[in-house]
Each structure stands twice: as structure tokens, then as C-alpha cells.
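Possible regression after last week's pipeline update?

I re-ran a chain I had predicted before the update to compare outputs. Posting the input and the new output here so someone can diff against the archived version. Not blocking, just want to make sure nothing changed silently.
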Amino acid sequence: MAPSVSYSITVRLEVASHGRTVSEITRAVEHAGGVVTALDVTSGHRGRLRVDVTCAATDTAHAEALVAAMADVSGVSIHKVSDRTFLLHLGGKIEMRSKVPLRNRDDLSMAYTPGVARVSLALAAKPEDARRLTIKRNSVAVVTDGSAVLGLGNIGPYAALPVMEGKSALFKRFAGIDAWPICLDTQDTDEIVRTVAAIAPGFGGINLEDISAPRCFEVERRLRAMLDIPVFHDDQHGTAIVVLAALTNALRVVGKDLSTVRIAMAGAGAAGTAVLKLLLSAGATKGAVYQGRPGMNENLAWIAEHTNTVGYRGDLAGAVKGADVFIGVSAPGILAGDDVKTMNDGAIVFALANPDPEVDPDAAREYAAVVATGRSDYPNQINNVLAFPGVFRGLLDAQSRKITDRMLVAAARALADVVLPDELGPDYIIPSVFHPDVASGVAAAVREVAADDGSDD
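New output (post-update):
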């Protein structure tokens, strides 16, 4: 594994102001497998230099080894070690700021009492104007119960809070949306639904996040039925949008059509189910969950009924044999390169388990024409931030009361079209999250469908 900024540290140390100690420190870090990304001399006094060395490691243990390697250099005194990721999180990553000036008594009288009472009375008479006169117009609640956070599992609401803060920061950065992290100290489905319904008046949309399956399906279904604002489960629909967009372009690369390719999937949890349903909405037809399989819940039964018409009951290796596409949203290391070799020519492999994919990407690339992962250190990263900011921007702009599969498919197609035909290739089927046209293009597509559906009625 290559050194990563996720495990970046800054080591403050002192060395003699003469000699070659500083260059020896750099060599020591490199010999220990780290990468020096910055070296700053902060002060000098009485023949000694204070130096801040910033370097990237592969994990926490490796970071400790890099510090030990620097300490072993003759004449080096270690003063302080700072983990840059933890420093970034000190005090949280987001804040609230006023949009209006509060410079004098007149400003206070209009923003707060007594002037605000006029607005409150107007909203009491016409509550629907809250979308025009309050932050509801541009706000999203990022809601979790901490039961399925990233690849970390059931770590609870406190541990989930930094992730939800990050999500909120991404909403602001990429779509100008004010989002708030709402971490619930309950994993009871009824209580989650009641709580989100109770806070909904203050928001223009609900983004459910990191709620474990199968509870997440019921939470989403019930809230959509109860609320007059769109409810979006990013683990499901965000993933599905980006997968469909990437697959659209991957099929363009290999010259195949979604309606005719054979697709093998691994993973029928929240993400896998949503990917499958959106692929079906877009025109795909294949699957391998069979009717009558023991232990199926309602969700899996739907999958079996709507996909695997031939009743295939074999293992995954058998399912990928002769397939055009493999999509994995399950577990690491469940396929080998030799399994990919049995796929059709022009094979497409999306191995999205994180941090370790279903099949080693380098092994898959020996036989597949296009490979995508969920990782940032390989080409074609399937990253939900490509979808959710633009989707909500479009929903909020349209004052939509719901979200539909047509909107999701439109969002995926708009995202795919950000990659121009002369840019498209096996290692570039999905744009960068920093591409300036991503959020705006997705938002425009969602707004257009919302207008056609009359979803703001």
C-alpha cells in the first residue's frame, strides 16, 4: 500500500544548525517507506534549528515507525508529533454563519424581535412559504444512526459525527447547500422515523446516511410516504447513480449496450439493491438471486422475481463466467484474476468494496477492458460525492416534494455526459469530483425531470 495523506504527520524536531542532519532525516523517512511532503525550518537558536517535517505513511503503525526512524538520526531531538487528520477535525469541520449583517439596532429589529414576528405570522397563515422565507429553501439534514458507517460497521452516533460533518462540508463545497449532521442515539426503526419526521419542517430535504440494511429500506419508505420533502438514502441512491454513470461510459468504451449485456452482481445490501433497481430502470435485465433461495428477506425476494428468470443457483465464479459486466458491492477477495479471465471479451469489472475490492484491480486489469473501484489510488473511482450534491441542488431549486427513479437515471446520464467523447477511455469513464460541470450538470438534469413530473405541485 502506498503512503497516503490520510496518515500524514508533522514531526517537530530540533537538529544542529550545521552539517547534513536535515538531509539525513529525509533519507531516513524514505528508507522507512515514507514520503516527505514538506520540510519547514520554523526557528533557529544557539546553533540549533527547529524543523517541522511533514510526511505520509501507510497506516498508524507505519507513522510511528517513521518517527522512530527520524529519532534514530544522530543529533535529532523529537519535540512533538501531530496527526494532520486529527488536527483537521479539532473543533469540528463545519460552522454556522449569518447571511445578513447585524451591525446596529435596526438590523437586530428586522432579523430578530420585533420585526421577525411579522414573518412568523405570515408563515403561520401560509406555511408553504417557509421554502421562500427561511433556510428550508437551501437546507438538508444528514441523518444517521451510526449503524453502518463507511467500512467501520456499527460504531454509534458519536463516532459517526465526523463522517456526517464531512458530508455536510461536501454539500456546501460542491453545491452551496447548507447541511447539518443529525446523529441519532437510537437504532429503533420507529423512533428514527418519528424523530426525522419531527425535525423535517426545518429542512428542504433529508439525506439518510450509513443506516444498516434492511432497516434502511423501511426507514426510507416510511419517511417518503410521510414527508412533503425528498428523502434520499445516499448509500443506496448515490452509489447507484455513480455506478450507472460509470457503466454507461464503460459500455461506450467497449461498444456494448446495457439492454443486451449480461451482468453479474455480488452484494444485495443497501447499495447493491439500489444499483440493481436503477440498472433495471435504465434497461438492464439480468441477475442471479433465485426465487426460493433460503433466508431471503422481502428485498431479496423482489430481486429474485425481477432479475434471475433462468433460476441460476451457482456460485459467483460461475455467475461471472461468460458475463460482460461484474459489479461488486460486497466483500474483499471473493474473485480472482482467473475468474475475470472467464468473462466475455471487453469485460467490465466494478470492484467497489472498500478499502479492499472484491478482486485485486491489477489482476482484473490483465483480462478486463475497464476496471473501476471505490479507491482513490486507482483510475475510475466510484465516489458518491459525484452525485448527491448535484441531486439535492436540483431538488431544492425545483422545490421538489419527492425523488423518483426518473430523476436518478437522469442524474446518472448527465454525470456520464460530463466526460466528453474525445476524453473517454478505459481509465477515464467518470469525471473528477472537482470537475466544474459535475454538480451543475446533475442539478440541471434533476430540475428538468422535476419540472416534467410536476413534483413541486
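Follow-up from reviewer: compared with the archived run. Confidence is low (pLDDT under 50) at residues 288-296. Marking as no regression found.
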